[in-house]
Design brief:
Order of helices and strands: EEEEHEEHHHEEEE
Structural class: alpha+beta
CATH topology of one domain: Pnp Oxidase, Chain A
Radius of gyration: 19 Å
Shape: elongated
Number of helices: 4
Distance between the termini: 23 Å
Strand content: 35-45%
Helix content: 10-25%
Number of strands: 10
Mean pLDDT: 97
Low-confidence stretches: none
Bound molecules: flavin mononucleotide
CATH class of one domain: Mainly Beta
């Protein structure tokens, strides 16, 4: 069984330097030994939060499977080379969009966005579209991962993996 609808969509929770939390959806674009990678505008709300406070939580809710996975840990920037490589795989329209959108800043109207898309489309023509300097990725390196599975009569299963250094311990929690 697998989640049919956007299985890689996850809630990303961040907080600013005063501890004010903020959550939004992003798409998981890579997983490796270093952690879970997503991409965004570095000057967006989440980008600003992570510059001030490099900790995050991720949450997958696979509704069809009746499962959730919670991930927490410190966040680092992906390398320029890694971001370039991923950016190059994106559709041309998405690459132009990354240039055109001042994500999370006030916009007078949709016309302004359409105008900027047209401007960047003309600017790049048929040529290469480089990655904007304000667009890159973050990697959440987990130090806690919890797997939750629905059980009968709300007697759900919760298994937590916690990392200290390179050692992971596993325990069960009351639901
Ligand atoms: C299913 C889904 C996937 C999304 N994926 C991304 C993503 O990968 N990167 C991103 O910057 N925004 C993504 N968004 C938009 C964000 O939820 C959010 O609106 C935007 O990034 C601005 O958030 P911020 O102001 O907290 O930075 C996605 C939204 C949805 C509903």
């Amino acid at each position: 069984m697998s989640e049919p609808n956007d299985p890689n969509a996850m809630t990303l929770a961040t907080a600013d330097s005063r501890g004010r939390p903020s959550a939004r959806m992003v798409l998981l674009k890579g997983v490796d030994n270093g952690g879970f990678v997503f991409y965004t505008n570095l000057e967006s709300g989440k980008g600003r939060d992570l510059a001030e406070n490099a900790q995050a939580a991720l949450l997958f809710h696979w509704k069809s499977l009746r499962r959730q996975v919670r991930i927490e840990g410190p966040v680092t920037n992906v390398s320029d080379a890694e971001a370039d490589e991923y950016f190059a795989t994106r559709a041309r329209g998405s690459r132009i969009g990354a240039w055109a959108s001042d994500q999370s800043r006030p916009m007078e109207g949709m016309f302004l966005l359409e105008k900027r898309v047209a401007e960047y489309t003309a600017k790049f023509g048929l040529g290469e579209i480089p990655r904007p300097p304000h667009w890159s990725g973050f990697r959440v390196t987990p130090d806690r991962i919890e797997f939750w599975k629905e059980g009968r009569f709300r007697l759900h299963e919760r298994i937590v993996h916690t990392r200290k250094g390179d050692t992971w311990t596993i325990e069960r929690l009351f639901p």
